[in-house]
Amino acid sequence: MKKMSWRKRLFYSYIFIGVIPLLVLGAFFYYGNRMTERKELEKSNSAMLSQVLQKLDYVTEKMNSAAYHFSGSEIEEQLNDVRYERAEIDEGLVASQLMTYSEIVGDTENDVKPILYLRGDKSVYTMDGKIPYSEFEKDMNQYGDLNEASFFGTINSVKDDRSLKIGEGKRAGEESSIVYFLYPIPYMNNIPIATIGFGFDSDSLNALIKTYYTADSAIYIFNERYLTLFQCGQENCSGLSRKALDDLAIKYRRTGGKLVEERVDGGSFIIMREISANSGLSVVSITDSKKFYQSSSEFASWYIFLIAVLFIGGILLSLVLSQSNYKPIQKLVQKIVDQDTMADQEQQGINEFEIITNKWADVQNKNEELSALLNRQRPMVVASCLRRILKGKFKTSEEMEATLKSANINLSYRYNFVILLPIPVEDSFEEDKNLRIMTVLAGFMQPFIHVYGLDMLKDNGIAVIVNCEERTAGEKNVDIRLSVADHLCRELETRHEISIPFYIGRIYEDVMDINRSFLESAAIASDYHMLGNQKVILFEEIGYEEQNIQYPILEQALFIQCLKQANEEAALKALDNMIGEIEPLKSFVITQCLCFDIINITIKTLDQLKGFELKNVDLKKLITFKSLPEFREKMAGLTIEMCRQFAEFKDSRNNERRSEILDYVNCHYGDSSMGLESVADEFGVSSNYLSRFFKQETGCSFIQYVTMIRMDRARELLVNSNKQIKEIVAEIGYIDVANFVRKFKGYEGVTPGQYREKMRI
């Protein structure tokens, strides 16, 4: 068994003696601080909830006082006259008194909606005057059905103070309700003749709660009979459904301590309960434990930073000490390496060091050769893997993970998206500009972000796969896509004076959807003029330019791009999304028009595919559908056939062009005027495209490829012919003999004449 080296022994001993105890003590201290902070947060949130209940008690006490006051007022005497003698009541006096109570009970006159009802009557008195009960009932319909809440029966029969909730209606797109606190008039009398009520709508109660309770919690208010009067803030507990929250609040409305922690559906929640001894009201709050114990203190961050600094310092100090103490052993090893004779080493009794040294040298040499080979091949492996990801060639996530691991590509963070840097074919980019962009991408360094760039030869651009941990960045929560694009844009402009637009697809959690984000960015590139001259364009922004579209413009652009990419699976998915938006429509005429629009964009896309002709497909049959399912079936068949034929067309065209270009170069390498520009002009492509084509197809540049062919022919002529060197130079396409001799010696290590003599021996 191989023993551990002395340097490692020394290093680990310093780690165990100094660094690990420091980390343990730091962890204990940090844990104690966090526990204390948790207690303070519990006290703070509990105090806020108590303030809410105290405010409710205060309002309830003022309503009780108002009921007592009304029972002793002259209006109460008029109510008796109205009831028994049919006398007229002073409506202005009642409205004025109700408005006074509204101002006393609420912070403003709009917070409270007081009413007065004479039992057996068909009218209700409000701050606006006397109105029929039917009109009052109609006004209350914005909150809910009064009959469902038994409101009429309650105000005719209530003998003691009672609270009542009305409705969960829809108002302005939000949930709303109103809570009435009802008191018999005369108050505390066995034979009441009227009922006075104070109404608080959901906006008033929500404002009251937010004034005193600032935590992100779901709040429930229960009356003395433990019936729900009001609830708000359910959106703060996104991990639970509305029903689960209601059940949890009902469970703890009577029992449980003031603070209880419970796990529900895999999440942890803190439940606090406060009960009033005066009004009988109870308030229950439910908070996600992560939000409940979230602290604004910077102590934890600074403390962790300090521990990290001490830890790194301890490791560096351990390295320095271990290296210093290892020097005597290192000198001995170096002395053994420098020895040439076995006898001296055997006399010293350290023959095993000689074996280790030789073995290490052999392994090191082989390792360097293997590393050099891997380094030459790794960019091609990584590029191939990234290209398969972008094209959606992986069938399963397991297959993708295995390939990523073999290519040493790390996509372990949660979110993924693709940035496309378009390179127009007509743009006169110098040959190394793509290399500059790739260099900037390779040097991208930000925490919790991985960036991988790929030169997409056939798509005229550079695709950038970004893998990140968060969807936002910075204190202002800027979209992570804008943050990354802004950083890259500044790097390109500052370091290389390169200014190009950034087209960015949507963010996805599943790595299998990276292909979808790429197609979205490519869709922007094909129609980027819609958004003007923006520097950074998000896929979502395409939809902002089309306000009258009847189905998602994003899915339309994605469908077009999928057809151009011959991506059958993604195209069918985009088609289903468009048709899914049409299905809810009840008008067949509108549905038919939208279907014709889908057919139109498909035919338009087909016309844009230059040189491609769809065969054995009758497009006229598409317009003969009688139902949406029939249209879906026909359109899906067209999509599948179109993607299949176009994929075969692209493969055939690419293979033909590849063969033509390579055959042309192989036949005309002897022409001294042949260069990158002339070959590009011959085939009607840009020099930039041709240069990237050679790098992708042959693994070397155009000049390297031509030089390799010429050198192969030169070696053949030197060995198999008696031609003079200057004749060989002219035949293989060189003009300057000295230049040829210099390049030949660089390849073979000898001059052409020496090579001929060597090979003919």
Characterize the structure shown.
With 761 residues, this protein is α+β, with helices and mostly antiparallel strands. It has 6 domains: 8-214, 2-Layer Sandwich (Beta-Lactamase); 217-292, Beta-Lactamase (2-Layer Sandwich); 327-358, no CATH class; 377-538, 2-Layer Sandwich (Alpha-Beta Plaits); 553-652; 669-759, Arc Repressor Mutant, subunit A (Orthogonal Bundle). The chain is built from 25 helices and 18 strands. α1 (6-71) packs antiparallel against α3 and α17 runs antiparallel to α19 (628-668).
List keywords for this structure.
about 750 residues; alpha+beta; Beta-Lactamase; 6 domains; five-stranded antiparallel beta sheet; five-stranded mixed beta sheet; elongated
Give a brief outline of the structure.
With 761 residues, the protein is α+β, with helices and mostly antiparallel strands.
What structural class do you assign from the helix and strand content?
Answer: alpha+beta
Main pleated sheet: 5 strands, antiparallel
Number of H- or I-type helical stretches: 25
Q: What would the CATH topology of the largest domain be?
A: Beta-Lactamase
Radius of gyration: 41 Å
User: What would you give as the CATH superfamily of the largest domain?
Assistant: LuxQ periplasmic domain, N-terminal subdomain
On the 0 to 100 scale, the average pLDDT is: 78
Approximately how much helix is present in the residues?
55-70%
What is the global morphology? elongated
- Supply the CATH class of the largest domain: Alpha Beta
| Count of folded domains | 6
Roughly how many Å apart are the termini? 53 Å
For the secondary structure, the number of strands is 18
Organism: Hungatella effluvii
GO molecular function, one term: sequence-specific DNA binding
Protein name: Helix-turn-helix protein
Keywords: DNA-binding, Membrane, Transcription, Transcription regulation, Transmembrane, Transmembrane helix
